[in-house]
Hints:
By secondary structure, this protein is mostly helical. It has helices at about 1-20, 20-25, 35, 40-60, 65-75, 80-85, 90-115, 120-150, 155-175, 180-190, 205-215, 215-245, 250-275, 280-300, 305-330, 335-365, 370-390.
Amino acid sequence: MLLVAVNALVGGTLGQERTILPLLAGQVFQLDLYTSALTYILAFGVAKAATNYFAGTFSDRYGRKPVLVTGWLVALPVPFMLIFGPSWGWIVAANVVLGISQGLTWSTTVMMKMDLVGPERRGLAMGLNEAAGYLGVAGTALATGYIASTYGLRPGPFLLGAAFIAVGLGLSVLTVRETRHHAGTEAAAHVPVHSGTHAGLSSREVFTLTSFRDRSLSSVSQAGMVNNLNDGLAWGLFPVLFAAAGLSIERIGVLAAVYPAVWGAGQLITGALSDRIGRKPLIVAGMIVQAAALAMVAVGADFGIWLAAVILLGAGTAMVYPTLLAAIGDVAHPHWRARSVGIYRLWRDGGFAVGALLSGVIADAYGIPAAVGVVAALTAASGILVAVRMRRADHISAG
Length: 399
């Protein structure tokens, strides 16, 4: 539960940007092209994706707690860069730093919970972890929308992020304990789920297995990437779309908060559900639901339709997000599970960068609804690929 609280603070640190930065790009820095405005998500996604990989490797080598504390230390300058940044380049640089911090902190809370709970409740643990993180994102997105409407886009919203970082660092240093030895205990009784997933693999072999060779691991990796591709679109272009339709900052803040709120709260149910019915059905259904929600955003034109769409998008993402992480934990051997999680998160958070670039280019050329429609089609295709390629019974029955 301490790690759940820490990850809520990790999510809050990210949530300080969700409502504000898309508006900051246009209203303060006068960025007209969507591709230019989305550079901060591209920078965040590349930095976080790369750091996820190293977080897994460093956690295996040095332990989980040192990586977690380092992530909080890296985050310290972010709110001040966002508050005082005189140019858009400062905002992009702040998101590089934030991406590094998020890669270290969020990845480590995932690994530590996997270490602690064992295989039978892995979905429940991932649901708790991701629910805490995205409820933190949602609550902060909503709070910063109201703060900005009263006090302006800077500095008020980012002072909340500074407080989260201070508390998260204090908790991680003073109260969090190392969990790596639990993975060693689990490894002694581990029964491989698939052939080729034995203990003695090099980092290169783990990368190729997770990314390409294993049908289940690679299916999960591509689905994670597409999921965050559409989240990058939602983060960067939804507030711009809503503002262009005449919605107030308060209403934009509500829509920006409802999506991760449903996503976060829903994972309290879907994570545990995947322990019972398996990972594959929830992943496939979740990707299809997301695609339908994105299609609603593309054709919608008012607050009511968009509210229904973001609720549906949050529900679909809740079905997928903890389930994908649990599926990685099911297949990966405890000796290299942290590395496999890091590689999955490399692909998944690389989706932020791909989504920002792809949706920005399409939006510049054809408008935001066209960009949303293309991403909806990609999301549906990803779900179909999981249905065809992923093995069916990937929840652990053998300890």
